[in-house]
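User: Quick sanity check before I run a bigger batch. Here is a single chain. Can you write out its predicted 3D structure?
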Amino acid sequence: MDGFEAIAASAVPLTGGYGGETYAVSAAGEDAVLKLYGRRPERAAVDISLMRLVRGLLPVPRVLDAMPEPAGDGAPPYVLYERLPGVNLETYLEGAGEDQRRKVGEQLGELLVRLNGMPFLTFGDFAGRELATVPFGVGGLEEFFASHAEAIGLSRAQRAGFEAVIDQAEELAETGVDRVCLVHSDFNPKNLLVDPSAARLTGLIDWEFAHAGSPYADLGNLLRFCTDPVLARAVLGVVRAGPELGDRLVERARAADLWALIDLASRPAANPVAAAANALVARIGDTGDLAGGRPELDVVH
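Assistant: Done. Predicted structure follows.
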């Protein structure tokens, strides 16, 4: 494919997503993002369908071109998206004032409400253009933790403390809302774009972990390392006004996030986010509490 080869030749690697598979390119006179699917070729068709499903409901890029199946010459599937305007939200928040952080927090809450309002019938990963849900193929949270505990490297006391927290999480899951929705699964400032002049969110990117799951999961991801009470309270105020999620919202969100937190904490510590997750799991084990010593983000649970 001559056009694809020309695009790839002028590509500049981008951070985020799968390392070495996402590039900034120029196509048809506009900036674009080229994503290759060499490691998970089956995911290309899923991502294309997801972008089309939520387009107009969430700030996602237009699909400009795509090859959802591997080429006969061995070239991997790819998707070419428009490049959305804005700067990385993580960077923006470092210097944003209180009013700006509150405004951004309210918009984050609105995005979470929209995600929560996109229902699916069953939990699972997505497969194919039809976004069929495939069971995750794992047991309960306790079994999942046991399979990752050695890689995380907790002491015996920390492991016992964390297992007690898992019991708390499972009790919360049993009393929460029984609903399945679209989960971005990496909903945090590094995957969001903002117009700094207007404090307006312009993009939610990197959907490679999206699945059908808990309506608390994305909120838990967002709150995982959040230490800004202004931002958190703005988010929670909007989320509480959306589809009913019950009481003890922060606890339920942190409980739902344990799956992703355990997985992240078991990865090599050379990754700073994985190292932070590992330290958080250790603190949760030390305290025997879902908060793990994190600051109180909202006076209403």
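The chain has eleven helices and twelve strands.

User: Great, the batch can go ahead then.
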